C-alpha cells in the first residue's frame, strides 16, 4: 500500500474517532470496517483492517467534539476548496508518508474540521473521495441509535443535582451572615435567615422525595392537566424565587407524560432563569395548548444565549463562558437532565431568544396517549 493511501485511511479513522467520541465504540468499528473494505477496492490496495488503520500514529486533526454533531448532517467540499488544495503549499514533510495537504470539512460554509492527506502528486479524485467518505462515514454514525442513560443513572444524577442547588444557596447566605454580620442591617439579616429557612425546608422535602424514589425520572406516563401540575410545582419553589414568577395557566391544557417530573423540570428552568437574569426582574411561566402538544414556557430577561450556546446548552456538564468568573454557579447538569427526562416522555425542549432580551425555554409534551415518540 502506498504512503498516500495509508495516510488517507488514517485520516478517515480520525474523523470517525472524533465523530464517535462518547458514542457506541462497536458501531464505530463496524462502520470503519465496512468503509475500508470499499476503499481497498476503489483505491486498488489490499484489504485493510480496523486495527491496521487506527494502530498508526494519528497525525490528522479531524474534528472537534463540538463539531461531531454537525458533520453528519451536511458536508460540502466546493470546487474552490479543491483548487486551493491543488495550488496550496505543502503543510509539512513526513519522512515516511511524504508531503501532506489538508482537506477542509465544512458545514454551511463553516469549517468544523479537517482531514490530512499525504500525496506525492496532486490528485483531485482522491480528495473528492475523501470528502464523500467523510460525509458517509459520519452520517452513518449519526444515524445509529445513540444510547440513553439508564434510569438508575439518571436518578442518581438528578438527585445529586437537586441536592446541590439548595445546599449551595444555604452555604452562600450562611457565609454572608458569618463574614458580613456587622455590615448588614436588620432587614438584610432577616432576609438571609428567611432564605436559609426556605431552602432548608426545600432540602428536607427533597430528601423525602429521594427516599421515596420520586424525582420524576421514571414515572408512569398518562394524561394529566398541565396547568394543575405547574401550579403544584410552583408551590414547591423557594420563596425567594417564587416571588419573581408571573404565572399564566390556560385551562384544558392536557398533556401525556409524567406529572411527577414537573417539580424537577420547572424547578430547574425557573432556577436557571433566576440565576441568569438580574435580581428582581420577572420570570414568566406559561402553560397552554399548542396544536397537538401541551406547552410549558419559562422566560427570563437576562443576557440571553448566542445560537452556538443554545445549541450546546443541553450537553452534560456544559456551561456558557460568559466572562463572569463563574459567578453564576452550577455544574452544567440542569438542562441536560430536563431534556433527558422530557424526551423519555416523548416530548422535547428548545431554547430561543426572548423578544426584548433574555431567553425562552419551551417544553412540549404530546396531548394524546397514543402519541408516538418524537
Automatic annotation (TrEMBL):
The catalytic activity, as recorded, is: ATP + protein L-histidine = ADP + protein N-phospho-L-histidine
| InterPro entries from the UniProt entry | HATPase_C_sf (IPR036890), HATPase_dom (IPR003594), His_kinase_dom (IPR005467), HisK_dim/P_dom (IPR003661), HisK_dim/P_sf (IPR036097), Sig_transdc_His_kin-like_C (IPR004358)
Give residue ranges for domain Histidine kinase: 158-369
Sorted keywords for this record are: Kinase, Phosphoprotein, Transferase, Two-component regulatory system
Q: What class of enzyme is it?
A: transferase
Gene3D superfamilies assigned to the protein according to its UniProt record, in alphabetical order? 1.10.287.130, Histidine kinase-like ATPase, C-terminal domain
Query: What GO CC annotations are associated with the protein?
Result: plasma membrane
What does the record give as EC number? Answer: 2.7.13.3
Q: Name one GO molecular function term.
A: phosphorelay sensor kinase activity
Q: Which PROSITE patterns match?
A: HIS_KIN
Check the record and name the SUPFAM superfamilies matching this protein.
ATPase domain of HSP90 chaperone/DNA topoisomerase II/histidine kinase, Homodimeric domain of signal transducing histidine kinase
Question: Which compartment or compartments is the protein found in?
Answer: Cell membrane
Pfam entry (one): HisKA
Xref: PANTHER family: HYBRID SIGNAL TRANSDUCTION HISTIDINE KINASE C, TWO-COMPONENT HISTIDINE KINASE
Protein name per its UniProtKB record: histidine kinase
From which organism does this entry originate? Actinorhabdospora filicis
